[in-house]
From TrEMBL:
Cofactor dependency: Fe cation
Protein's name according to its UniProt entry: Cysteine dioxygenase
UniProt source species: Drosophila rhopaloa
GO biological process: L-cysteine catabolic process; taurine biosynthetic process
Textual note on the cofactor: Binds 1 Fe cation per subunit.
Signal sequence interval, chain numbering: none
Keyword Oxidoreductase assigned: yes
Record keywords, A-Z: Dioxygenase, Iron, Metal-binding, Oxidoreductase, Thioether bond
CDD domains recorded: cupin_CDO
GO molecular function, one term: ferrous iron binding
Broad class of enzyme this protein falls into: oxidoreductase
Amino acid sequence: MALSKIDSEIEQVDQEKYLRQATSYYQALEKPLKYGPAVDTLTDLVAALHREFESNYVNIEMVNHLMLTYKSNPREWRKYAKFDRYSYTRNLVDAGNGKFNLLILCWGEGHGSSVHDHADSHCFMKMLKGDLREKRYEYPNRSGKDTSRSHHPDGEIDSRELVEIGETPIAVNDVAYINDNLGLHRVENPSHSDTSVSLHLYCPPFDTCSVFQDNLKKTTAKVTFWSKYGVRTKQNEQ
């Protein structure tokens, strides 16, 4: 194996470690940085994100700023917006050279996610069209949190442990942020007549997460893409 490839892999491991450690303290910006750069188009946003992730020590605050600064333009993201009749869809816009994933999620009328975590990654969610509603929950038995409530040995979580801690509406161009230290969440389109579209950035990327189902079982779910770069994926490519 070439030394340059080995060095690149070591750098990526170091960056992943740094990003995961940053979830222990990062909370999110409420508005763009006063002296931060502006991004005018989705193409500009993708290019700016690639520049930020060139360093092992990613400025996660700047990533947040970039997501806040971009203003939704349907002409730019429409080709990635693929809907399904029965469920919300996850559509890959940019794979971030393995350092981040930028996705467009499309939510039909009334569609919603399960309660889930983010595999110790950062999750930024920007509204592009319509509205979404986020419900947050305490993360049961999270290290450093209160673990005094009972936990069944078969993996079933005592209903007292899934405690809702907040509900937030997300409007066009708003940016929501979450990581596992802030809790779990469920996202849904509250409208039964209009669709919604959101732009999500995950770093580091992950291919599985924990889902907390309605029967309160914690399970591992594989993360898949309904489309990649505007093209519908085949079942074995998701």
